[in-house]
Design brief:
Blueprint lengths: L8 H24 L1 H5 L8 E5 L34 H13 L2 E4 L1 E2 L7 H13 L6 E2 L10 E7 L7 H9 L6 E8 L7 H8 L4 E2 L3 E4 L4 H14 L10
Parallel strand pairs: 1-2, 1-5, 5-6, 6-7, 6-8
Antiparallel strand pairs: 3-4
Helix pairs in contact: 3-7
The structure holds flavin mononucleotide.
The site of flavin mononucleotide has 20 residues, from helix 4 and strand 6.
């Protein structure tokens, strides 16, 4: 029975040189085309993540307070050593999924660590459309086709440090994907605000999630949303 599977020697011998030639041709092709071998491990480029969070722009915890509990330190995630907020958790997911470069916005003069003081200053900046001085930046933007913008919703719109970032950095020709955390608001006037700040960009619908969501859940929900909206790494098409 098994013998039926073997070809007779009289058939194999005449075609053996041809079979060997085909095998060597295959090896040569791979060696001449190194991109084929490296495609799976080269991280996707062309994607930038810019995010703003209060907890990364805080002048320091108030005297006698060991840790800050806010939506950026969700209590359900407050395990030892975890100081990551939801915006940062989602940015980290984007870094891993898109091979993105991540830039966290830093202000020259951070907000007060007392919530009420920070809130009053932030609202004043929004009402007066004040310019907020920022330190550092993501560097040259030429190589990026997609820019994810992450922020908490403040006053129904963008936090002013994000507005200042967008005024200082030209995102023309790029696709902008907003992602936000909230305490009840939808995206509200944010799409309009982004169109006015970035008139030459393509702005997609934004992802928006309750601030109290656990880090892993927020990252997972955002991943699902990206798939549903066919927002893929550039190497996989737009
Ligand atoms: C100045 C200020 C304005 C805010 N305005 C809104 C708002 O309009 N809608 C909303 O859902 N949440 C609003 N929030 C709540 C933020 O979205 C919330 O603080 C954020 O989701 C959690 O991030 P944080 O811990 O960094 O503050 C506001 C918070 C601040 C400080």
């Amino acid at each position: 029975m098994l013998n039926r599977c073997f070809m007779p020697k009289s058939f194999i011998l005449p075609v053996l040189p041809a079979i060997l030639a085909m095998l060597f041709a295959g090896c040569k092709k791979s060696a001449e085309n190194p991109t084929m071998a490296t495609e799976a491990v080269v991280p996707t480029s062309g994607t930038l993540v810019v995010y703003f969070s209060w907890t990364e722009n805080m002048a320091g915890p108030p005297a006698g307070v060991q840790a800050v509990t806010s939506a950026t330190y969700p209590p359900n995630d407050n395990v030892a050593g975890n100081r990551m907020g939801n915006i940062e958790a989602m940015a980290t997911m984007l870094r891993d999924r898109f091979g993105a470069y991540v830039h966290s916005i830093h202000m020259d003069k951070p907000y007060d660590s007392v919530y009420e003081k920070m809130h009053d200053r932030a609202i004043d900046e929004i009402r007066k459309d004040r310019e907020v001085a920022l330190s550092g930046g993501p560097g040259a933007l030429d190589g990026y086709g997609t820019v994810f913008l992450g922020f908490p919703i403040w006053g129904g719109g963008l936090p002013q440090p994000m507005v200042s970032f967008l005024k200082a950095n030209d995102l023309s020709g790029k696709r902008i994907v907003p992602f936000a955390i909230n305490l009840g608001s939808g995206m509200g006037r944010i799409p309009k605000q982004l169109s006015s700040l970035c008139p030459n960009s393509t702005i997609t619908e934004g992802f928006n999630i309750a601030a109290a969501t656990a880090n892993a859940e927020a990252a997972e929900a955002f991943t699902k949303w990206l798939d549903e909206h066919h927002i893929l790494p550039e190497s996989q098409g737009k």
